[in-house]
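Sanity check. The docking grid for 6-O-phosphono-alpha-D-glucopyranose depends on where the pocket ends up, so I'm generating a full predicted complex first rather than guessing from homology. Inputs follow.
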Amino acid sequence: MCGIVGYIGSGNVYDVLIKGLHRLEYRGYDSAGIALVDDKGKLSVFKAKGKVANLESYCEDKNTDSAVVGIAHTRWATHGEPSDHNAHPHYSEDGNLALVHNGTIENYQILKDALIQQGCTFQSETDTEVLVQLIEYIKVHNNCSLLDAVREALKEVVGAYAIAVVEKDKPDTIIAARKSSPLVIGIGDGEFLLASDATPIVEYTKDVVYLKDEEIAILQRGKPLQLVTLENEKAKIDVKTLQLSISQLEKGGYPHFMLKEIFEQPKTLLDCIRGRVVDGGKQVMLNGVLDNKEQFLKARRFVIVACGTSWHAALIGKYLLQDMCHIPVAVEYASEFRYSKPVIYDTDIVIAISQSGETADTLAAIKIAKGMGAFVYGVSNVVGSSIPRETDSGTYIHVGPEIGVASTKAFTGQVMVLTMLALSIAQLRGTMTPHQIEEIGKEILTIPDKVEGILKSLNEKVKQMSLIYTYARNFLYLGRGYSYPVALEGALKLKEISYVHAEGYPAAEMKHGPIALIDEEMPSVIIAPKDHLYDKIVNNVQQVKARGGSIIAVVTEGDDLISEIADHVLEVPKVSECLSPIITSIPLQLISYYIAINKGKNVDMPRNLAKSVTVE
Ligand code: G6P
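Predicted complex below; grid placement will be based on this.
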C-alpha cells in the first residue's frame, strides 16, 4: 500500500504532485506529505495527518510555487501510528535528502541499531527513515553520488520497496527504485513523472516504463531516462503505451466511485467477454488457454490463490472448474499458502487472482508455486502490474480502473473470467459437449443486460429498504452452493464500508452455531436463487424465521414460496446456476453501499483499508 508520486519538468510541481496523490489515495490515506526542491537548492517538506485534502489545507499559506522538482506520498501505516512525524517524505539528518517509500524494510531494526551506533538520531518510528539515513550515511562516508549511495543502501535492504529520492543541491534529478512494490515512470515532453501506478501519469503522457525488481531509474531534467541495476549495469528501457483514459478515473456524475463502479457493471462485463465469447455464444475461448493447450490438457488439479474479494471469486471458480472440467480444485488464501508447506506437482495449474496485480501475499504465493514447478495462470485487472508479469500466462478482466476500495466490478469481472476459463478448459478437455458450451455461451451474452435490468429495478428499492436496516449491529449472510461465496462477499462488502459486523456462512452450517445469534435484532440476508439447492435453502429460511430473525432474500423472479416468508424480497432474473453469482451479488453490493451511506461513512475510502495491499 501507500502511493508515491514524483515530478520533474516545467509544470507546477506542487499541482502535479497533489493531483497525483488524489489519484493514489485509494492505496492509503492516513497521512500525506510532499517534498519540494527549488532551483536555489532549498528543500521543503510538508506533511499532514489524514487525507490529501488536509495536506492541501496545510500547504495553503506555504510557498509551493518555486519548486522545480518534487516527490510526494500518501500513507497506509505499517511502522508507527498515522501522525505528522511518521508521514513521508522522510529526510536525512542533515536535511540533504528526502525520500518516499512504499513497501516494508524487514531488517530495518538491525540497520537502525547500526546507524544509531554511528551517532544517527531518528525523528520517526518508520522503517523508511532508516533507509534515507542509510543512504545519506553511505553518501557522506563513501563520498559518492546519490545514485551510488542508493545502490549500496538497497543492497543492504531486506524487504519490499518502491522509492523516490531527491537531493537538496540537485534540483534536476530524482532517483527511483523498486523491488516487489510497483513503480511506473512516465516519459513526457521535457518532463518525467513517476508513480505507484499509471493513474497520476496518464494525463501528461501515455509513454511509460514499468520498473523491474532491483532496477534504479535516474530521472534528469533535459536528459533521456536511464535505468541501471543495483550492480550499476545498464538496464533495458521498454516503453509501453498506456491504454487508460482520464474519464475512467473520474466519478462521471456519481456521488461515489463505488456507486459508479456498481452501475458500470453492464459495460464492464461486456468489455470482459468481448472477443472471448464469440459467434453468438457458440465459441468461448480464452487465448491464455489456447496458447497453453498442453498445460491445460495435462493438468490434474487446480490450486487457486488469492486474498480478500478475489478469494471469494476463487471459491466460485472452484465450483465452476469442478462442475465444468471435473478436475479437483483447492482454494487457498495466498497468505496461508505461502507459509504452509504446499504440496505442488508439475501437473498442477496454480491460478492467482488479483484485481490490483500487486498484492504481496499473492505475488509471494506465485513465486513459491513457480519454484515448485507449477504452471501459473493469472487473473488480474491492472495491465502491466506485477502479477501478470510474474505469471506464465493469464487473462485480464478488463473492467477498467477500480477506485472504490470495496471491490465490485472487479469481483463480477473475475467471476466472469473464471466462468470463461472453465468453459475454455471444458472445451479443450471434452468435459462438456459443444451444445452445452453453446448454451452457457449464449447466456453469458445476456448477462450485461440482465445486470442492467437488476440495477434499474432494485436500486431504489434497496435504497429505501436499507433505511430499515441501517442501525442493525450484526448481519448474517447465508447461501448454499454457488451462493455460498456470494454470501461471504456480501458480508465482506458490508463490513468493509459500513463497519457493521456481518458473517457469511454456508446456510446449512448455520445450525452448527450461528443460529444461536439469531433474534429479532439480527437480520439475515439469504441468497436463494432457484437452483438445485433451492428446496434445501427454503428450510434454512424457515429456521431463521422460526427464531424471530428478519429476512432479506435474494430470489429468482416469480418465487412465491420464499416471498411469503421473507420480510424483504429482491428479485433477480433466472439464469443458469453457474452464472447466478454475478446476478445475485449485484443487490448485495447495493445493500452495503446504501447502509454505509445512511451511516455517513466514506464508502470510497473506508477506515484502515487500502485497495492495493503491497505489504504482508
Ligand atoms: C484489499 C482490498 C480488497 C481486495 C484485496 C485483494 O484488501 O481492499 O478489495 O479484494 O485487497 O486485492 P487484489 O488486488 O489482490 O484483488
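Relevant for the grid: The CA atoms of residues 542 and 564 lie 11 Å apart.
Also worth noting: The mean pLDDT is 94.
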